[in-house]
Amino acid sequence: MSTTDFAKALQRMLAITDTGLTYTRDPFDRERYEDLRQILWSVLQDQTELDQEELTAILKPTGSYATPLMDVRAWIVQDQKICLVRGQGEDTWALPGGFGEVGYSPKENIRKEVQEETGFSAEVGSLLAVFDTNRFQLQNKQYAKFVFDCQLLDGRFQENQEVAELGFFDISALPPLSEKRITKEQMDILWQVYKGEREQYID
């Protein structure tokens, strides 16, 4: 089994224990799920480089049925250059966006994220891609990453609580990327979809 397959197996087992602990009414089943969670804790400690805080976050029960989460990102191009933001205290860059919030549609979420991170209102256009993070940036939780073609409208960028810097970059001269948020391979796919060189991408 490859390292990636092993990590996916652990992720799947965590999802099963979360769902089991949420819905079981049998005290014996609850004990078994809690035992499984302890075994997973030991495996993660032995086989990964995660610290105690990261392990605690990963193993915290969701309290609901375990499903993939939603991440929304804005693809903004001006003069053939792509808008990226650099978070506070970070050296890497990503497309504007973040986790989807309850009570907002995907398009409403991306408008909100663009406004908060860039200071601009945005017109949200077509959906360019839906990426599965298990394929591109495997991590403790699985996300469906929705990337929308957007256009900046009124506003002005100011450094804020989340974002330290905003910039526009050529696809061939990208800065270091925050690969948990966006990878170079994903950027290349998005550029091809945007330029009409391939169809909408959906994992």
TrEMBL record:
Residues 67-195 form the Nudix hydrolase domain. Pfam families: NUDIX, Nudix_N. InterPro entries: NUDIX_hydrolase-like_dom_sf, NUDIX_hydrolase_dom, UDP-X_N. Transmembrane segments: none annotated. PROSITE patterns: NUDIX. Gene3D superfamilies: 6.10.250.1120, Nucleoside Triphosphate Pyrophosphohydrolase. Signal peptide: none annotated. This is MutT/nudix family protein. It comes from Streptococcus infantis.
